[in-house]
Recover the amino acids of this structure.
């Protein structure tokens, strides 16, 4: 098959994967796994749009960045230190030109970059294996890694750096083949760009230069033509590194710049096992691992494996094997793993930064040692194997794309609550330049992106931190409505100084008053004067219990009437409510207020109020609140929990509210429960 046709086939396969895996999500807001990191990158692109494309002063929306002191310092600007932000800058230029700041601009940019990288991977495989089926196999293997698929049209810079490494590696292999210095220059350019954008990609960058040094020592290459490109490469990297240190010193940063190594071997083992258990089948599927094992076995059966190449004394003038390059590369990744192991447990994309490419390059080198099928029956068998793997890998990739979007850490709730918040603030006459203090929302940049305003964020607000940030210079205080309900009992004296300007059923806008006005959450939001759209109560005295379940009536302790419900020592689930009537959620945003009385002989370590909207095993809403701090022992305690439910347009599902206590507890009594929709 000629070169043009093979390239066209590779492009068609790459485009097919792009359509299958990415088209459905191409305009998706940064959500689900690592929405935090992805929204930070999206914020940088919007920051360039807002600062008139000032490349050397990248900014987000947050004026108290996480580093160096965990959001505890207020700065005058939202400028942040960050690795060479060329991706975000190009995206910002496109946004400026098109007048569109939608996430799809960023996603399409990353997707196109990744497709280019995959095409160059195919070219590398074809260059080394000289066999089309093997090259297609490598392409399919790489393009269907679940973690690669997930970030392929995302916001993290690792995808573009990964693609730059593949482009640079192809130029380097062409240089080895034809000794054309122009190819070495291009290789150095793309390797340098990859390192500038994402520092961890300095590993393959150095691996290539080390391999070239070995070739020079072996008299396979000349030293002089390498001096200038290598010098310029590290000069550019060092120059931006110094500038970035300056930015970090003056403005702080949203991004980590320190090592995260384990404290001892025991912790290292735990972290490594945790990373494998958590992400192992997100890196590759079982079929990917099976192919790696099979390829290794077949290669060992062949006499052309690496050791036979290294020990072949008869070929005195044989070139330096590429296995050396891959070993240097892998060794660098292992060193990086040791230095950053704490990050691997929580950041699946660190695999893309390190081991993903050397594993694929290793696969190419193994396939290179296996003789190409020359007889037609053997070629057909090989073709069928590649087709079966294509089907298996694709099915798994599609499944993992869906499954990874069931991960919920509160991001979707934040997005839902702050949706249309910019228009809401505009309607209140709040200036676009007003500084906003946001309490207890995560991911942090998402709230400001949706408000189209800058300000300060207080994450995980304890009393000391809350008192500190309230003294900063800000104009308005904003929090999700549910926050007030669950924070009030901790710090009523602080929250009683919040003067409500307005709320839209999801977020509340406040200013700070010098006077304290006791404001119970129900009164703060005037639920006592609102007529609920839906109301269900139970006092355990009457037989009207429709929808309520897990009722264990007792007369031992009661708040009112003659009976209450017992949640015994051995039980985890208390009285709850369940219904299949979802029409309330289909119409609009719904606020669900749960209230009731609870009596506990001893204070439990945990006590959760849980609300879920579900259909066919898929949770469209799931939120839990720990209200154990409300439960003082040996007295009846008022319990309130507020849930803001986004509009959910589903049929034939159900919603349920539960009282859930999975930890050790004494007998707990429930009375006068109420669930109301507003």
């Amino acid at each position: 098959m000629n070169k043009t046709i093979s390239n066209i086939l590779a492009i068609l396969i790459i485009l097919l994967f792009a359509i299958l895996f990415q088209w459905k999500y191409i305009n998706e807001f940064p959500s689900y796994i690592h929405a935090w990191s992805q929204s930070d990158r999206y914020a940088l692109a919007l920051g360039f749009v807002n600062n008139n494309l000032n490349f050397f002063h990248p900014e987000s929306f947050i004026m108290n960045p996480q580093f160096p002191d965990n959001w505890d310092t207020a700065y005058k600007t939202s400028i942040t230190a960050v690795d060479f932000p060329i991706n975000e800058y190009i995206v910002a230029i496109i946004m400026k030109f098109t007048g569109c700041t939608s996430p799809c601009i960023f996603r399409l940019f990353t997707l196109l970059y990744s497709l280019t990288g995959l095409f160059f991977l195919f070219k590398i495989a074809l260059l080394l294996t000289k066999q089309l089926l093997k090259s297609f196999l490598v392409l399919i293997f790489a393009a269907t890694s679940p973690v690669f698929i997930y970030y392929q049209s995302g916001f993290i810079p690792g995808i573009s750096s990964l693609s730059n490494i593949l482009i640079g590696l192809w130029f380097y292999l062409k240089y080895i083949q034809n000794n054309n210095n122009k190819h070495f220059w291009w290789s150095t350019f793309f390797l340098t760009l990859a390192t500038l954008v994402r520092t961890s990609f300095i590993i393959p960058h150095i691996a290539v230069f080390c391999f070239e040094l070995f070739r020079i020592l072996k008299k396979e290459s000349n030293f002089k033509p390498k001096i200038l490109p290598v010098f310029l490469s590290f000069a550019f990297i060092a120059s931006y590194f110094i500038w970035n240190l300056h930015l970090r010193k003056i403005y702080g940063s949203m991004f980590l710049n320190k090592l995260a190594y384990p404290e001892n071997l025991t912790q290292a083992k735990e972290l490594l096992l945790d990373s494998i258990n958590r992400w192992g089948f997100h890196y590759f599927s079982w079929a990917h691992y099976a192919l790696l094992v099979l390829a290794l076995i077949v290669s060992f059966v062949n006499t052309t494996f690496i050791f036979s190449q290294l020990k072949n004394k008869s070929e005195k003038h044989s070139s330096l094997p590429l296995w050396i390059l891959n070993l240097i590369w892998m060794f660098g990744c292992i060193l990086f793993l040791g230095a950053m192991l704490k990050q691997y447990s929580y950041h699946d994309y660190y695999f893309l930064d390190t081991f993903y490419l050397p594993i694929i390059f290793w696969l190419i080198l193994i396939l290179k040692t296996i003789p190409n099928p020359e007889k037609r029956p053997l070629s057909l068998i090989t073709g069928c194997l590649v087709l079966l793997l294509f089907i298996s890998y694709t099915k798994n990739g599609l499944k993992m794309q869906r499954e990874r979007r069931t991960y919920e850490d509160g991001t979707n709730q934040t997005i839902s609550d702050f949706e249309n918040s910019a228009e809401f603030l505009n309607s209140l006459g709040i200036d676009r330049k007003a500084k906003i203090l946001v309490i207890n929302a995560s991911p942090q940049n998402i709230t400001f992106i949706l408000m189209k305003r800058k300000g300060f964020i207080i994450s995980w607000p304890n009393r000391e931190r809350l008192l500190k940030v309230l003294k900063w210079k800000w104009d308005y205080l904003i929090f999700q409505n549910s926050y007030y309900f669950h924070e009030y009992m901790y710090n009523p004296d602080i929250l009683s100084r919040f003067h409500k300007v307005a709320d839209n059923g999801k977020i509340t806008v406040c200013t700070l008053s010098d006077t304290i006005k006791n404001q119970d959450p129900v009164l703060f939001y005037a639920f006592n004067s609102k007529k609920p759209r839906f109301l269900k109560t139970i006092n355990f005295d009457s037989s009207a219990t429709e929808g309520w379940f897990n009722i264990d009536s007792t007369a031992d302790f009661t708040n009112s009437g003659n009976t209450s419900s017992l949640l015994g020592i051995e039980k985890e689930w208390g009285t709850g409510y369940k219904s299949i009537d979802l029409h309330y959620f289909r119409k609009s945003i719904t606020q669900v207020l749960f209230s009731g009385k609870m009596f506990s002989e001893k204070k439990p370590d945990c006590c959760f109020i849980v609300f879920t909207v579900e259909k066919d095993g898929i949770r469209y809403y799931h939120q839990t609140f720990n209200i154990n701090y409300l439960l003082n022992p040996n007295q009846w305690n008022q319990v309130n929990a507020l849930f803001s439910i986004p509009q959910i347009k589903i049929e034939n599902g159900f919603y349920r509210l539960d009282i859930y206590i999975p930890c050790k507890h004494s007998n707990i009594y429930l009375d006068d429960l109420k669930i109301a929709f507003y």
